[in-house]
Amino acid sequence: MSLYLNDNLSALDYVRKEYLRELQLERLRKIVQHAYSNVLHFRNRMDERNLQPKDVQTLSDLGKLPFMVKTDLRDTYPFGLFAVPMSQVVRLHASSGTTGKPIVVGYTQKDLEVWNEVMKRALASSGLTHEDVIQVAYGYGLFTGGLGAHYGAEALGATVVPTSGGNTQRQIMLMRDFGTTAVCCTPSYFCYMIEQAAESGIDMRELPIRVGVFGAEPWTNEMRKRIESSAGIKAYDIYGLSEIIGPGVAVECSCQQGMHVFEDHFYPEIIDPDTGEVLPDGEFGELVLTTLSKYAMPMIRYRTRDLTRIISEPCKCGRTLRRIDRISSRSDDMFIIRGVNVFPSQIETALLSVEGTTANYNIILSTEHGLDCIEVDVEVTEELFSDKVRSMESLRQHLTAAVEGLIGLRIKLKLVAPNTIQRSEGKARRVIDRREH
Ligand code: DLL
Question: N or C: which end of the chain has fewer CB within 10 A?
């Protein structure tokens, strides 16, 4: 009893937490059994370790089970990890990845109900209700963003405007004409929408839009501040991945201090990415997720490659679900320059803390005289670009110092003219790696 009961936790919270842990254990045991009985790949992995579903007696026994990784999906392409016959699979999605075959995920009717439910909660957590007009500008199709947000918004009873990504001028026209109150898309695409609106003489702050539900790519608090002030909205972070369900694994609440994980459906662990050891709440590492109630393609201990920490302190909003911190980066996004680990998000934080730039930048990695170098190209605002050379040079120095101060490496920083860096209608690609390996 004393394990959980502390000054910060009321008796009611304690009961809720205990109930949640019981529910998780019950669901975990069921899903492990289901995967073991129906997915040969998983069964082999368990057998190699002399493990059986009955070995999961407590939640911490999960730590004994093997990890699943992206290559497990690639190696069993397309349907090798499915745990139900195709006649029960009612939807497929796929994520393209950078090389080779996509990874494919499937859903039963019940899995879709779970997804709708978590997405409905996610939108409600972002302050939305059935009164809202929600424009879904995540891509529709094999990507999970569009349809995930769409059905969640319908389940909430909101009015959905399914624009998908692209055709930005029309997005803005519809936003104004339909009285859109919330937009779901990637943060980088929303930045582009703000720019395009301004070009047509529309100030987003004067439109009815009040909320953005942004995710599918890393973004920083500095980016949030820019978006919130230039569009006059509250911008919420939403997290998810195709392998687990799509968007709706975790989302912020009005406190905007980390994303609550829908722990009754997705069990989070943080591991040391090098050793695989499970880390205590609060420590940074790689997020590992287990689906507790997805039957077409159960994922047990899936290594997401996303770096974060679990926040278990109670949240002021009253939700007792634990939170994950903003995803600072994927472990695959990190680059090592002359022995120093650098995350693109550090560079974004530094750039956007200085006024005078647009939110568009590229990070170019190259090799010069056998040494790795970083060049950062940043777009300046129209006002500054037409201004004196002297203020441009002072901005350049200011930005260089901000980035170098944060990453501890010398960089080359170039200011480029407005509208020269390619905009994104989906996930932005900001790192260009030209190093000779
Ligand atoms: O991006 C699902 C999604 C759609 C999430 C819409 C949120 C909103 P995938 O294409 O499979 O699925 O990409 C998943 O994107 O492992 C993270 O690296 C990254 N990611 C997703 N949300 C966030 C976020 C969708 N809020 C991969 N912050 C994940 C940082 C994110 N990275």
Answer: C
Q: How far apart are the first and last CA of the chain?
A: 55
Given the DSSP bridges, would you call strands 91-95 and 103-107 parallel, antiparallel or unpaired?
Answer: antiparallel
Query: ∠ CA(289), CA(295), CA(300), 5° rounding?
Result: 25
Contact 178, 218 (CB under 8 A): no
Distance from Cα 247 to the centre of ligand 1, integer Å: 7
Ligand 1 pocket test target in 183, 241, 297 with most atoms within 8 Å of CB: 241
Q: Distance (Å, rounded) from C-alpha 162 to C-alpha 299?
A: 29
What average pLDDT does this structure show over 159-168? 97
Instruction: Please state the atom number of ligand 1 nearest to the C-alpha of residue 305.
Output: 16
Question: Do residues 39 and 83 lie in contact, with contact meaning Cβ atoms separated by under 8 Å?
Answer: yes
Locate 404 and state its tokens.
Answer: 């170098």
Assess whether pLDDT exceeds 60 at residue 294: yes
pLDDT tens digits along 169-223: 999 999 999 999 999 999 999 999 999 999 999 999 999 999 999 999 999 999 9
